[in-house]
Amino acid sequence: DSNKPLKIGIACYPLVGGSGILASALGMELAARGHEVHFFSYAKPVRLDTSLPRIHFHPVAVSKYKLFEYADYTLPLAVKLAEVADQAHLDIIHAHYAVPHATAAYIAKRMAKQDRLRIVTTLHGTDTTLLGRDPNYRRAIEYSLQHSDRVTTVSDSLRRDTEEIFDVGKPVEVIHNFYTPGRPTSTRETMRKDLGLGDCFTLFHASNLRSVKRIDLLLQSVARCKLRENLKLVILAGNSFEAFEGQVKDLGLEETVIVRENGYPIEDYIEACDFGIYTSETESFCLSILEGMFLGKAALAFRVGGIPEVMEENLSGLLCDFGDCDAMASAIDALAAGPERAREMGAEAKKRALGRFTADRIVPLYLECYRQALADS
Ligand code: GMT
């Protein structure tokens, strides 16, 4: 029955990072459509509103034993998934990010007392591109994918990488990410004043600063701009920025770079800025670029991974070859000298986001994926 509400368990990471943000948004959208959604993680996912109807959060506690040098999370997660699967009669466990969620889901499915339970695994990026190449993980990830009822990736680029690295044993479905912007709580003028942006053309970068984000290349690109006096870079840091402060000083960027750790709500900050900038060496999708697009801000990025699927080059965003900081700097200078082009691209970016990456387009694709998994005998 395609109208019957489903009972869905979502295992995800709770901290600032695209996979947890996407999983939280998906769960809340599913609950709004009448489905019962159970979240599993070691802490409440940052953007999850647990006060909403039909949303449940099951914290996974990790016991600390002197005997073990390393605490294990996979088994307590598997036990919690199996317990709730039995009690709440879950139809689906949706694992976001393979390690360790897909493996815990597999163990839970074997332990659960009901045989209806199906596993859907969504790969988000480094679970394929980084851990997938790590001999300590590869085989377990591959096994978990083979034993998932459905496997999805957030871009075609990540699907290709996944099929190259693993023998998944079944078709991999691409379901792009979606985003629903929150209502601004402040005005652009207030935020610009607060950030001390003056009349400067303002770039923004939002990330967890992990090494794949290549903050070194971000700072170098900005440092090579000729129009530096008219330029600011707002970094919305999901983690401590301390490690990069030395580089900011060495490059003489103290007056240009403004850092806000855990700036929230992110929409207010993005509204205050003019253009996004991303210098990752790998990026399966880049949800932050999409966040900006929904707010009418296009981005400049390296041409890596799934980023060319998110924006159309030269129309709703700008791309440079990976590592070419001089090309990045020239692109920034051109934007700062003619901000009208930035605004035009921002309008195109918003059009594209609303046309392709809304919850109303994407959530039904996940629901269809769940229904197909349940229809398998
Ligand atoms: O990139 C990160 O550091 C976070 C990571 C995650 O797993 O949360 O993000 C990945 O998933 C996001 C949501 O699908 C994608 O938008 C990011 O591109 C992807 N990161 C990488 O591929 C490096």
Automatic annotation (TrEMBL):
SUPFAM superfamilies per record: UDP-Glycosyltransferase/glycogen phosphorylase
Domain Glycosyltransferase subfamily 4-like N-terminal: 16-179
Top-level lineage group: Bacteria
Example GO biological process: bacillithiol biosynthetic process
Annotated ranges, domain Glycosyl transferase family: 188-352
InterPro entries noted in UniProt: Glyco_trans_1, Glyco_trans_4-like_N, Thiol_BshA
GO molecular function: glycosyltransferase activity
Gene3D superfamilies: Glycogen Phosphorylase B
Name by which UniProt lists this protein: N-acetyl-alpha-D-glucosaminyl L-malate synthase BshA
Organism: Pelagicoccus enzymogenes
Taxonomic classification: Bacteria, Pseudomonadati, Verrucomicrobiota, Opitutia, Puniceicoccales
Gene name of the encoded protein: bshA
